[in-house]
Design brief:
2 domains; 3-stranded antiparallel beta sheet; alpha/beta; 37% helix; single chain; oxidoreductase; 443 residues; TIM Barrel; 8-stranded parallel β-barrel
Length: 443
């Protein structure tokens, strides 16, 4: 039987967290990161995953209500967590559009050294001019150019990591240290995106290079993952969609000389636990209503309608007016591309669904913006996760709790032991590095 992989996601920009719950904690204090990371390590999870945005989203000139203001830098948090964990992998989302290879390669090599081989990089791209305003280059790149830059960015970073051989060592001389070879770390790289040469000054990372994640779902993103990534942070956690996605990306691997086991598919997944399946279903309904407040429902509605709907009643029907199409949207940042199809067509679908089920605006938004992946008693959830993995829906899941930082506790206490009883989950960490614990080949 396949072994189940699990990881923990510390949410930041989403509609997963229940902010209003009295048990909800800070999303910026270091103690919250430590609490969730240590719980994940207690549960023998593979890694802790931290996403990052490069600009706070805006809507109608206001900060988007689901964004975290004041989130510390990803590398700073992960480096600090390396000191308070021992086995847990440390994965961070770092952008390839508005950063530079030398800097990112150096930061990840440093994190891998500080953590004794537990670093992972989720390689992402940015699409919008709004985010680009924070950077010297500004603007944005078309989709095909974004992925071309990402590929070349990763190739360049890999060349920097490989500029040190495994046998390159630092020798002590008095209070200083020196290299035995003068050309250690020497590199030169030229392509359509980068033209750099110099000397990389961080020794080869313990893993050779960090574990590479990819999170895009487009055809370009899937090809990038098949060619370059060790794992995919997928959004396909449902059975049918997950199996289709899994078969698609695994089927692309032979073209790049890779095996099925060289790429892990790890969808993000939410969960709600109860003593019984019925109790869990009741809790799940309440959680969804807390996740989508009236205010939040209006924000989602505005993203599609492209209108100021602040006076709209979230407990009433959908607006009678049609959405305003166009690229100049009232939502700035990632929120502005939540809907990729014709907004009028989507609005018509929403109206049909709302009328057929007599749903208010808020109830409709609850319905169309997603729901929990796994709902039930611990036994039900453990069984479902195992069934999904054995059926090639996924190789495991990156769990996103609706409460931070304590929302993972019951899963670790009640679900993990059941997976261990099924013989599909580890009882101890098998290796010292993240690459070893994920079962990936050495590089």
């Amino acid at each position: 039987m396949k072994q189940v992989h699990l990881a923990a996601h510390f949410p930041g920009v989403n509609n997963t967290t229940v902010w209003s719950d009295p048990d909800a904690g800070s999303h910026i204090e270091f103690s919250s990161f430590v609490r969730l990371a240590r719980t994940a390590e207690r549960g023998l999870f593979d890694f802790f995953f931290l996403a990052e945005g490069l600009r706070l989203r805006e809507q109608n000139g206001l900060i988007y209500d689901l964004d975290v203001v004041g989130r510390p830098d990803t590398f700073t948090v992960l480096s600090a967590l390396a000191a308070v964990t021992t086995h847990l992998g440390l994965a961070g989302t770092i952008n390839s559009t508005f950063n530079e290879p030398y800097e990112v390669a150096r930061q990840f090599a440093s994190l891998d050294h500080l953590s004794d081989g537990r670093a992972a990089w989720n390689v992402v791209t940015s699409w919008d001019e709004f985010t680009g305003e924070n950077f010297r280059r500004g603007g944005y790149l078309p989709s095909e150019q974004r992925y071309e830059r990402a590929r070349q960015f990763l190739d360049t970073a890999t060349r920097l990591w490989d500029s040190w051989r495994a046998d390159d060592v630092l020798a002590d001389v008095g209070a200083g240290r020196y290299l035995r070879r003068a050309d250690v770390g020497a590199f030169e790289h030229r392509d359509s995106q980068f033209d750099i040469r110099g000397q990389f000054n961080v020794p080869r990372p313990p893993q050779g290079r960090p574990v590479i994640f990819q999170a895009g779902d487009s055809d370009e993103g899937r090809e990038f993952a098949a060619a370059k990534a060790d794992a995919i942070f997928s959004r396909h956690a449902k059975y049918a969609d997950g199996r289709e996605f899994y078969a698609d990306v695994k089927g692309r691997l032979p073209a790049y000389g890779r095996r099925r086991e060289d790429l892990l598919v790890l969808p993000a997944a939410t969960f709600v636990l109860g003593d019984t399946d019925s109790e869990a279903a009741d809790i799940a309904r309440e959680v969804r209503l807390q996740q989508v407040s009236g205010q939040t429902a209006i924000k989602f509605l505005e993203q599609l309608w492209n209108r100021d709907l602040s006076d709209h009643d979230p407990d009433g029907p959908l607006p009678r007016v049609d959405p305003i199409p166009g690229e100049n949207t009232i939502a700035k940042g990632r929120a502005s591309v939540r809907i990729h199809r014709d907004p009028r067509e989507v609005a018509a679908e929403w109206r049909r669904l709302a009328e057929s089920r007599n749903l208010s605006t808020r109830e409709l938004i609850v319905e169309v913006t997603g729901r929990q992946s796994f709902i039930g008693s611990p036994a039900t959830v453990a069984g479902a996760i195992n069934d999904f993995v054995q059926a090639d829906v996924a190789d495991g899941f990156i769990l996103v709790p609706h409460l931070t930082p304590d929302g993972l506790d019951r899963f670790v206490d009640d679900v993990v032991p059941l997976l261990q009883e099924l013989g599909v989950y580890r009882t101890e960490y098998p290796g010292g590095t993240l690459r070893e614990n994920l079962g990936l080949a050495a590089v």
